[in-house]
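Researcher: Sequence recovery benchmark, item below. Answer with residues only.
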């Protein structure tokens, strides 16, 4: 009988896995014909999130030259490198363009079709445009993958879950707000992929509270302004009259940092330096385990500082008071944060040139404004300053930190679930919106359609309305009949609406304290409560404890998603090849 491989999810992760199967099969699979079943109700390539049928107003948040689905020599993997075009090379775009998501969807479809064309003869792919409902079957035997609307399951020798971002049930706080909204005729939009949200209940001219200031908010802002007929002329926004008034706040109270708007020149920092495979290996070998803040963060902080100061000293030496070799030696020998701060104070005269990760993470910590209007002006100044710095190569040490963040994330994925803080911090610094989006925020703010609430925003439901406040502006509060939770659902296994994951959870698949699915970091096999890897079930993606930064990889940065895809593809092919040999014996 022909071996059967089922991949649930045909978006970027499933497509990337298929590309790695095509690259590795000539060396690893010499068995009989193989059937690969892709299960996804959405078209292969883009899947749900990157489908071509969505508003052309929605952009990617990466330059077209920074998006690739293909490996290169920087990826540490056992499989062969198969280079291919970046998005800008494939689409003929300027590399600095922020392409819309429809173009990215077409690119992903082309990557999928190229992977199909490169599969060896005998490997056939079948797409099932249905939802997978559950997986059953014994650990040592064939699996059954049950599909919506199909009475018989797909039989699978191996199953790989590449589900991507998932819907989830509300947490207790959100559920209370939703219930209050139903009882009082209010509008509560839960965490969601914004392009899928029904925004029609948000009426023109009404106040809308928005909790979340990241990329989901940017999409919401676009769809409720340009998406409703408004337009920009220079630095001004000309409303259509159909827009609501958005009152936005979050834990930090500020938008994510702008994407950096200049190219790298000169030598890159030699990373990893203080947080690499050896340090990760030592952490994993500790019998008592490790604590992120106590054991991991000091290494991460030193690594990011090294990336920052390497760039500052080598590219902007006139702003330093010490030679790089001398600084590097003392920095490496420094015994802790206090010694590093003392060294930096001596070697870097301008505080603006010093890296302060705590201040970056809490820009409004302790800041108070006398009035709401004063805060609007103050935050516009903050955003203008961020735009200026992020587009000025004189501050290219920031780009050094960006490269450091990518290097660190590549190491952290080996540690499993380290809690939600790091992922949010990384996204805030390294995965923010394009600069033009922040300029649009400023225009909307000046037009009175975007109002900033502040840091540590609280939302309460009382007196028949939602009420938002922040300590940034003591005494100020705003009331509204609509609340939007502008963020993706938390990728927790226990609250996932996806029945397949819920069934796995109920059957004993292990989850981390943060609710992520535990997988073997070596190849992605799903772990049970005893830590045993399932021989026939794998999982890749943001709902696992091996989640990687972002959906796509920047070329020549050794993307960990490529390494994971390659390891899973090779493990699957070896297993299927051995299975075929035993069947033929």
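Model:
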């Amino acid at each position: 009988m022909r071996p059967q491989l089922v991949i649930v999810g045909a978006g970027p992760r499933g497509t990337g896995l298929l590309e790695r199967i095509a690259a590795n099969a000539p060396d690893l699979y010499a068995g009989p014909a193989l059937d690969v079943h892709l299960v996804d109700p959405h078209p292969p390539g883009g899947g749900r999130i990157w489908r071509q049928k969505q508003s052309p107003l929605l952009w990617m948040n990466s330059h077209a030259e920074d998006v690739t689905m293909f490996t290169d020599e920087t990826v540490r993997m056992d499989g062969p490198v198969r280079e291919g075009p970046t998005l800008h090379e494939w689409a003929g775009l300027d590399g600095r363009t922020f392409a819309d998501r429809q173009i990215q969807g077409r690119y992903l479809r082309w990557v999928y079709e190229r992977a199909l064309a490169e599969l060896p003869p005998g490997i056939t792919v079948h797409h099932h445009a249905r939802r997978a409902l559950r997986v059953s079957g014994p650990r040592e035997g064939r699996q059954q993958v049950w599909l919506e609307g199909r009475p018989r399951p797909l039989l699978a020798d191996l199953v790989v879950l590449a589900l991507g971002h998932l819907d989830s049930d509300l947490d207790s706080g959100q559920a209370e707000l939703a219930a209050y909204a139903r009882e009082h005729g209010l509008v509560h939009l839960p965490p969601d992929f914004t392009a899928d949200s029904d925004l029609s209940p948000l009426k023109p001219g009404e106040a809308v509270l928005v909790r979340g200031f990241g990329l989901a908010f940017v999409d919401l802002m676009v769809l409720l302004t340009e998406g409703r007929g408004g337009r920009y002329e220079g630095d001004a926004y000309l409303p259509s009259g159909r827009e609501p008034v958005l009152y936005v706040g979050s834990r930090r109270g500020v938008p994510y940092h702008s994407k950096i708007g200049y190219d790298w020149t000169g030598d890159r920092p030699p990373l990893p330096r203080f947080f690499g495979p050896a340090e990760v290996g030592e952490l994993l070998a500790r019998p008592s385990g490790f604590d992120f803040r106590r054991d991991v963060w000091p290494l991460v902080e030193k690594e990011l500082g090294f990336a920052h100061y390497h760039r500052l000293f080598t590219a902007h030496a006139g702003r330093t008071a010490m030679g790089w070799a001398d600084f590097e030696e003392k920095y490496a020998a420094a015994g802790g944060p206090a010694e590093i701060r003392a060294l930096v104070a001596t070697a870097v005269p301008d505080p603006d040139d010093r890296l302060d990760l705590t201040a970056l993470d809490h820009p409004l910590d302790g800041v108070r404004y006398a009035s709401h209007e004063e805060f609007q002006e103050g935050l516009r100044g903050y955003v203008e300053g961020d735009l200026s710095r992020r587009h000025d190569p004189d501050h290219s040490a920031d780009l050094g930190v960006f490269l450091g963040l990518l290097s660190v994330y590549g190491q952290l994925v080996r540690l499993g679930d380290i809690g939600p803080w790091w992922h949010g911090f990384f996204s805030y610094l390294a995965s923010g919106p394009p600069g033009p989006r922040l300029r649009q925020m400023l225009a909307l703010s000046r037009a009175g359609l975007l109002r900033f609430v502040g840091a540590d925003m609280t939302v309460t439901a009382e007196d028949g309305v939602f009420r938002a406040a922040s300590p940034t502006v003591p005494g100020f509060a705003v009331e509204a009949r609509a609340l939007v939770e502008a963020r993706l659902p938390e990728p927790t296994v226990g609250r996932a609406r996806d029945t397949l994951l819920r069934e796995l959870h109920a059957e004993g698949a292990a989850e981390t304290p943060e609710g992520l699915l535990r997988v073997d970091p070596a190849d992605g096999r799903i772990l049970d409560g005893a830590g045993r890897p399932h021989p026939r079930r794998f999982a890749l993606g943001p709902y696992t404890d091996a989640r990687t930064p972002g959906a796509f990889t920047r070329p020549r940065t050794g993307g960990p998603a490529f390494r994971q895809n390659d390891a899973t593809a090779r493990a699957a092919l070896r297993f299927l090849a051995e299975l075929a040999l035993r069947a033929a014996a």
